[in-house]
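In the previous chapter we treated chains in isolation. Here, by contrast, the input contains two separate entities that must be folded as one system, with a combined length of 528 residues.
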Amino acid sequence: MSTPVLYDNPGPRSRRRIAVASVITGIGLLAAVTLVLVQLYQRGELSEAKWGPLVNPYNPLFAAAWTGLLQALARNVYAAALAMVLSLAVGTMLALTRITSAAWYRWAVVGFIELFRGLPVVIAIFLAYRILPELGVELPRVWYLVIGLTAYNSVVIAEIVRSGVASLPRGQAEAASSIGLTRGQSLRLVQLPQAFRVMLPALISQLVVVFKDTSLGFIILFPEVLSFAGIAIQSLDNPLQLYFVIAVIFITINYLLSRLAVYVERRVSRARPTSPTPAGAAPHTEPQPLAGTSTTGG
Amino acid sequence: MQPVISFLGAVVGYFDPVIDNIGLFADAFLHTLEIVVYAAVGSLALGTVVAAFRVSPVSPLRWVGTSWVTVFRNCPLTVVLFFCAFGLPEIGINGAYFWFGVTGLVLYTSAFVSEAVRSGINSVSAGQAEAARAIGLTFRQSMGQVVFPQAFRTVVPPLGSVIIAMIKNSAIVGAFGVGNELFSVHATLVSARGLALIPVLLGVAAGYLIITLTGGALLGVLERKVAIAR
């Protein structure tokens, strides 16, 4: 709390009150955690039988459990990487089409983008999984997941690219055209390279979204980490523990990715000589948090 | 003219599985809306509380708020839902599957609501609150008349996007088989009754698009209403 916006820096009396409140809430929290742990213990959820395969290397099932888990997780990473690369390519193309297309058919591109932005990603995945085979397109299962993810995320990335290009100072495009570059050259050589730098944090945040959404693969029976869990709990009989471990893995990876996004955002915004601060800008308003992680959760 | 009419007839005929079962679709649509409304109310309330925790002077509360956001923002909704379905009964909370679905959606969305609200509060420049205190407004007056009205306007667009994302995420709850909502219509019609798959799925997609596109349009109107130049 560097600058509390809402209240003055506390005086001695407020500090005392805050200290008392802190102790009381601290005790309350401990009580709540204890209550949950006691409940779990009484129901045998903290036993060696349930946790052993996941945390005890000497447990006979430890190796099998973790091999399966990591293999499944690798499929999530693989699907996320494919989907991200494809989304980036398709999204950039969509954005460029939208930027360069004549007004009379731009609505088609905009309509396409709005349509897929409004469609739940799980529906997109399911549509790819069920409709493509009906149309005679038989693919390895991972591709249905990747295509569904790409359909959804490419339009999001198209918007990121468009706003990235729009955020550049107008002088960049003007300078490019005044030295005789065509519109395509200007985009390719001048605007996009700068825009990608500005967009990088938002793209990393989108990667978090893509990675989270690979877990939807279990709906189309793609053997990713949740499908593995569904099978493993039948023999290990420890759903709570296994899902806990999976949650920790996801949270750790995504947390690190979002830290990376914040770090990159700082670097990018520090090294940006081309964007002068508008004269009237309030000096201490925070820059709109483009990065962090996805700000909407979908 | 004749070929055009017969083509249109074929198109309409293709969607017969949807048109014949429009009642089922309507029911499912309303059920989805029900989930969405519960989840919106719940996550807005919970998210605001978490945001209040995060700006509170009491450090354990701040800590809870931060962990809450970190956990639920980085965990896939699917995993949160599994936890609600398997975990809550283990700590003695039992209920209908419908409520587990709504709870998962609320928990997940609350983290994003909290971030939107918090960044709204932060966007009010410190000078505003300082000026309010300087002219002698109490905490409640300065919150109610100075900080909150400004924060509210900033918060509307991101909150709207969060809610629209939540509507889309409600399809995941449906995929878990909460039942009777839009996503599960295809199971009823295609798997159980053997109707053509593609038109039914397109009908389901259209149902979601009606909600999200209408929501987006409403949000646009609302944004223009509350927009301020700062």
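Residues 275-293 of chain A have pLDDT under 50 and may be disordered. Chain A is about 75% helix and 0% strand. Compare these points with the single-chain example from earlier in the chapter.
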